[in-house]
Design a protein that fits this description.
Length: 250
């Protein structure tokens, strides 16, 4: 039985005040009332405030990225051990914005995934095709390449602590959600690939969907056989819409 995970990726939005208010409202409304596991990923600079506000809460803390290196002369970077210092449980790796805007390739994503595991964080590995790739019929190939790049380096056992997020790039921030069938087909394909290595691990790995999830479509997405929750961008920035998505689980 896989527990639904709903994770909010706040990206580079808001202010210290907004983050604190949002977290307080989520804690107040969701603790003890939500069947899903809920996580929030604020900007790095607000992790300390968030960790304090989440003490004793069921809501988990996550980061949006990390450095692949353990420590040293890497100006501007944040190590996995530092995220652990602030009680992070999750860290997003391979988000399409990191891949497209900051040139993170499959090799670097695999190294970040490994760095997360070494510090006992659960990586949320984002994979997904662009619109052009989908229109050319390359979705399966792209998703397989992105997953293989990590799987072949870290091994299937490492996935017992990981989450996979299928995020079609054309659905991120566009208001255009994948249809239930489009999403389910890819989720089943991902689980099938993991099952080729280990059926038990494949069965237990949460594969969440991301791309314009909102209150109105969350319940039907989460009800699909291989969709185990959501990675939520825009709709995670307002307490009301994020709470509606979290409550749609289960
Ligand atoms: C995301 O960026 O991970 C995402 C899913 O964004 P949105 O929900 O805004 O499409």
């Amino acid at each position: 039985m896989r527990t639904t995970l709903v994770a909010g990726n706040w990206k580079m939005n808001g202010s210290r005040e907004m983050c604190n208010e949002l977290i307080n409202e989520l804690v107040h409304t969701l603790d003890g009332k939500c069947k899903a596991e809920v996580a929030v990923c604020p900007p790095y600079i607000y992790l300390a405030d968030a960790a304090r506000a989440l003490k004793g809460s069921e809501i988990r803390l996550g980061a949006q990225s990390l450095c692949a290196e353990e420590s040293g002369a890497f100006t501007g970077e944040i190590a996995a051990s530092m995220l652990q210092d602030f009680d992070c449980s999750y860290v997003i790796v391979g988000h399409s914005e990191r891949r497209l805007l900051y040139g993170e390739d499959d090799t670097l994503v695999a190294r970040k995934f490994m760095a997360a595991l070494k510090s006992e964080l659960s990586p949320i590995l984002c994979i997904g095709e662009s619109l052009e790739e989908r229109e050319k019929g390359l979705t399966e190939q792209v998703v397989e390449r992105q997953l293989r790049a990590v799987l072949d380096v870290v091994g299937i056992e490492s996935f017992s602590r990981a989450v996979v997020a299928y995020e079609p790039v054309w659905a991120i921030g566009t208001g255009r959600t994948a249809t239930l069938d489009q999403a389910q087909v890819v989720h089943a394909q991902v689980r099938g690939m993991l099952a080729e290595e280990d059926v038990t691990i494949a069965d237990s790995v949460r594969i969440i969907y991301g791309g314009s999830v909102k209150g109105a479509n969350a319940a039907e997405l989460f009800a699909m056989h291989d969709i185990d929750g959501g990675l939520i961008g825009g709709a995670s920035l307002k307490a009301g819409s994020f709470i509606e998505i979290c409550m749609a689980a289960g």
